[in-house]
Amino acid sequence: MIGSTVPIVTPDEAVQCVGKGSHIGLPIGIEATDLIDAIVRRAGVVGGVEVTACGPQQSWASLQRAVAGGHATVVLDMITGAAGAALADGRVAYGPTAFSALAAPAPSQRRCRFDVVPVVVSEPDQDGYVSLGHTPFNKLTYIEQSRHVLGEIDSKQRDMFGSARLHVSQFSALVQHSGGPSSYAPARVPAQSDVARQIADWVRSLIPDGATVQVGPGKILSALAGFGVFDDANDLGIHAPVIDAALLPRVLAGHFPGSAKTVNKGKVTTSGLLSTVDADLDAASRTPSLELHDMRYVVDIGRIASQHRMVAINGALGVDLKGQIASDSWGQRAFGGAGGQVEFTIGAALSPGGRSIIVLPSTALGGSTIVENLPTGTGVTVTSAWADTVVTEFGVAELRGRSANERRDALIAIAHPDHRASLGQ
Fold first, then answer.
1. pLDDT for residue 249
2. Does residue 203 contact residue 391 with C-beta atoms inside 8 Å?
3. 315 within domain boundaries
4. Among candidate residues 388, 382, 373, 386, the one with its CA nearest the CA of residue 423
5. Residue 95's closest CA among 122, 111, 112, 113?
6. Which domain holds residue 303?
7. Strand, helix or coil at 412?
8. Are 77 and 97 contacting, i.e. CB atoms less than 8 angstroms apart?
9. Domains contained in the chain, number
10. CATH code of residue 250
11. DSSP letters along 96-110, please?
12. CA torsion, points 204, 207, 212, 215, in degrees to nearest 10?
């Protein structure tokens, strides 16, 4: 027993609350694999289980078995790796949703969006509190929308600073993790190409002293810190949904003191650390100035906009000559998800002295990433009304406050030279 109220049970005992038609929510981050495997087994008995999964990784093989057996349907809030193939052939569905929208279910949805949400937690402390570890992301949001919360205690999970903690009394059941791997998002290898270096040189010139920065995930984005993008500016801070493995050592070394931040002054605020380096994660758990909060806190547009000199740096698949930005789909194919890009684009644009920067190589798969019109079927992640600054290896296109013709000319100027003539026709 823990706290004399919540028993430790087996995963199969814990998931007896799953019945026919139950809606399971799987938030992003380190996954409760033992509980998810048990949910899949339970789905084989009761049938008709609905699953909403946000970026599944370790659980994906189990979810595929449930889908293949006809015991469950799966909707992805965010797409990762192998899930893309299942989406392409119609085995699962995709629900493109910004992170902040997940915190406010549509009016048609019942008050409790989910029946069951399983999460991995740390060992309880002496007061019965557990941590959601270094990948809390949107777990608290899912938990607050669920009738039953199941906890999988993993001794390898660290108790981090911030608000991503729960008391054991908030769980319907707790299980002990069996000891298998429990990591999330192996570190991306930062791009070391000349293209990435040239993009970094342009971005460096856009970072003012006293800026609070957000850097999204991606190979080129992961390379920015290594190429010295943040080395010239003073008194930088971070407010971002994720901090990746390339940036985390610099955070721990004090390169982002946040002394000029207008919100959470002196704190690095994030929802997750995309690192598998134990030494860095151990150090993070001992750093009070590094706080982890739920995604809805970090991606709140009002909070972002209140941060003076907020600079949001994100990637995209492509941009059309009107300034429409596509980051989570290209044609009929979906990639990843919108994440918090919409909120940070708008928030940074509203921030005093802030800006939103989209970085991308000028070409991909042999074609131009700057196009006359987005391919048919492409979803627009950021509308032209909020387009601000676009950077390729060939320069910077400033779009905010410019006419349609001026935007067109600015974007053509940073397209690959081989494609400029056709774009200018």
1. 96
2. yes
3. yes
4. 373
5. 113
6. 194-421
7. helix
8. yes
9. 2
10. 3.40.1080.20
11. ---HHHHTS--TTS-
12. -30
